[in-house]
Amino acid sequence: MVALIARAHLSPAASAAIDQLLRENPIDPALNRFCKDRPNDLMADAATWADDIKSTEKTGQWHYVDIPLAVSDSSEDAMQWCAALGPLQEGKDPTGCILNATAYELRLLRDKDQSAAIRAKALRYVIHFLGDISQPLHDTDNHDQGGNCTSIAVSFLDKPANLHGIWDYALLANELQQKKVTQAQLAATIDQEHAGDQASGLDLQAWAWEGHAIAATVVYGNLTPKLPVAPADAGLADRPACDAGRAKAAGMHIAIAQPYIDAAMPVIHQQIARAGYRLADVLNQIFQ
Fold this sequence. Notes:
By secondary structure, this protein is mostly helical. It has helices at residues 2-8, 12-24, 42-46, 49-57, 98-110, 116-132, 163-179, 183-193, 204-219, 242-252, 258-286, and strands spanning 153-154, 255-256. It has a two-stranded parallel ribbon. The two termini are 23 Å apart.
């Protein structure tokens, strides 16, 4: 939906150039794709590729930045929670986080001396990462791997799920089902809801802190009962095992019901719209 909203705000020249780059440098048709219901749009199809390829590319760390939930001062440098980028060699696990990985892929995308295949790959990463950075749990950690190591009951699910997955797709999948609309139709509705919003230039750190604040006030803040907040100075190396975190959360009997959903969905719509407008702004400048 981020890609579809961005598409609607691309200049004709940028839209055509992006389609040409993606069409002439396609995704491997043998790649197993998690999302089977991708809209018939090259950017939307490319939007989930970075998740599908992260085990092969060894770029799992590139999708998030672990700013501790307990930290609230957005004037701090978020790079203190981001490992240096590299080494980018075959067979090596690249370190880094969504901040420097996005900046790196943007440099490749802007560089006309790079091959078309490299630039197409960079474009797919950029589309995905500007969506990821808008999802609050990609900007936050509460000693739970961005909400992955939790177990929470949800009113419309048959069994408990982790908070990250609930925000990544479960809440939206439920809305699509309840409203009986397609991803493209919901994207158009979200775009209309936020028609007055404007992109304000590229600022990855500001966007990460924005998502982090939403995680504190909405994602975690509206849970009943609330998960304990891990100390800000607790090191990631000391994080409890994921199974232990899930068991602890399950023991608290946290439940997401309609009041939580009603508060979450406008925020999710807002973040999808912002990501779409920001992506369009970045791509219009690159492909002008």
